[in-house]
Amino acid sequence: MTDALLAAPIAVPLLMAALAIIVRKASIQRVLSFVGLGVALAAAVANFVRVASDGEILVSRLGGWPAPVAITLVADRLSAVLVLIALLVSTVVLAFAIGQRAADERSSFYHPVYLIMVAGISQAFLAGDLFNLFVAFEVLLMASYVLLTLEGTNAQVRSGTTYVVLNVVESMVLLMAIGLVFAATGTVSMAELPERLAALPEGVAVGLNLLLLVAFGIKAAVFPLFFWLPDAYPTAPSSVTAVFAGLLTKVGVYAMIRTQTLLFPGEFSDLIVVIGGLTMLVGVLGAISHSDMKRILSFHIVSQIGYMVFGLGLGGAAAIAATVFYLIHHIPVKTSLFLVEGIIERDSGTSAFSKIGGLARRSPMLALLFMIPALSLAGLPPFSGFLAKFALIRAGLEDGRCVIVSVAIVVSLLTLVSMIKIWVGAFWGDSPSPQSGVVGVLRHQRVMGLSTGFLVAVTVAIALAAGPLYRYCLEASNQLLDIAQYVTAVRSS
Amino acid sequence: MNAVEMVVIGVLFAAGSYLLMERSLTRIALGAGVIGNGINVLIIATGSRPGEAPILGRADELVDPMPQALVLTAIVIGFGLLSFLLALAWRNWTISENDEVEDDLEDRLIARRDDDARTSAGSSNERNAS
């Protein structure tokens, strides 16, 4: 039963993707997609409940092979909650994309590729060995290349090229790192590696860790490896950008958390804190300098990644718990902001402030849908972002890192400034095009509005359930720091 | 790992890195392929001692099949990537009659700002002269 439940979030979307490639008819593809994501989501909920209730680590060896040969899937508290939230968000975004009627009616490849990407994301969260993680990255990257360039327009091909080439380089660094890890230790299993890496000479271990950090750093878009992100993301359709923004960079952050806590505990903590601070600062400065909603939001991704990297660098149970909380809060918040942007773009044809405006008068509901996640991202109480930032900053102060904490607070204020810029540019004032000034924006976009509203409700729910959720994150963080528990759970399975 | 393998890996990495720096997407794709092969040779060369083919039932001095499995997977993935890159290059060719990777938007905006500043400075000079 454990085997089936752990494999379902990967296998079911893949199976449905295979069927969807064969049928090619949009209406049937939609059913297949929702069935696939629904079954995967149910399995993820079941896994989450089991992991949350008794705190055991679920381990599955696919195919029943013995230890070093089998593909191991591992769900601890961190993995289980991330798979759950990733599947939830991707199901909502799929509903939005169908409401948008953009992607899936123009190309019969949208559904299969989307399902393959979701399978890759689940696999990356559940992978129990480094090579499996590499394969998961490749699966989700390959699918993301196709989604990004699905329409094949000039802008998409141009920015898609940068994205593809950068990620090809990232894959190579990752593959090389994993090859060298195997050469040095003779295993790629995450349960065997902590012991064997600790036995290596220090120089070798540092080199391997740096290679892995660079690879995951490109994927997570940390300073100075972030420049591909604000260039590539804004050209895709909003439904695609939303799921990229919510999930793909977080897979990189997850891989960083996993390797830095399990394989190389506390090795580069100062370096990671500095990288986190610079990522926050550079990202938010980029956001302030732009006057297009989609570009501002893309730069915000970079700046928010900085907070998570900063928490990871601090180390310690409280800081890592805050990082996990930040991760959980950030996925739905960021995605819902991009969905609101998608509604605006669908209505006005653009998200540049020179061509939109006065949306608050036309649709107060849409303004509310934007305001809640925007204030949450900027870290204002009582929203989830405030709690996440508060937990991080408290952990930083307890650690006595005043400089980085003040950077985090300044960046938070600058985030608010850039959100106000969006508010003034898009929601206040008068609409520049007089003919579109009468009809409500959401009236013709029920499905899009409802799915965005649902995701915003999820972010509010995170803030309301912050107490139990933070306790869960603290338990997850203790589990991450307890390497022996992971190792024995995998070995004894 | 012997000297020949080291030299082969070094040459493949050097040639691949050089090609990756190029502006034309076809060459970047070739560079990705060449570096990918370099990494595959690296994994095989460092990951296992030479030995007999790992076939079930043969007992003595087998080679470790694990790196070979890794490389086999990596080759398949690399092939997929290469074909996608070539498809992208072809699409780029049909759109813009070349397969060069263009500057990104920020670069072009800054270049345009420079140009604007220069032309406005030039025109004000002309006005002063007249």
Written account of the structure:
The complex is a heterodimer of chains A (493) and B (130). With 493 residues, chain A is an all-alpha fold. In chain A, β1 and β2 (71-75) form a beta hairpin. Chain A contains 21 helices and 2 strands. In chain A, α3 runs antiparallel to α11 (238-263). The mean pLDDT of chain A is 87. Chain B has 130 residues and is mainly α. Chain B folds into 2 domains: 3-99, Helix Hairpins (Orthogonal Bundle), CATH 1.10.287; 104-130. Chain B has helices at 3-20, 25-47, 65-96, 105-129. In chain B, α1 (3-20) runs antiparallel to α2 (25-47) and α2 (25-47) runs antiparallel to α3. Chain A binds chain B through residues 68, 131, 135, 138, 142, 145-146, 149, 152, 154, 157-162, 164-165, 168-169, 171-172, 175-176, 178-180, 182-183, 188, 227, 230-231, and chain B through 20, 25, 28, 32, 35-36, 39, 42-43, 46-47, 66-67, 70, 73-74, 77, 80-81, 84-85, 88, 91-92, 95-96, 101-102, 104-106.
What does this entry show, briefly?
The complex is a heterodimer of chains A (493) and B (130). With 493 residues, chain A is mainly α.
Keywords:
heterodimer; A: 493 residues; mainly alpha; two-stranded antiparallel ribbon; 21 helices; 2 strands; 77% helix; globular; B: 130 residues; Helix Hairpins; 2 domains; 4 helices; 0% strand; elongated
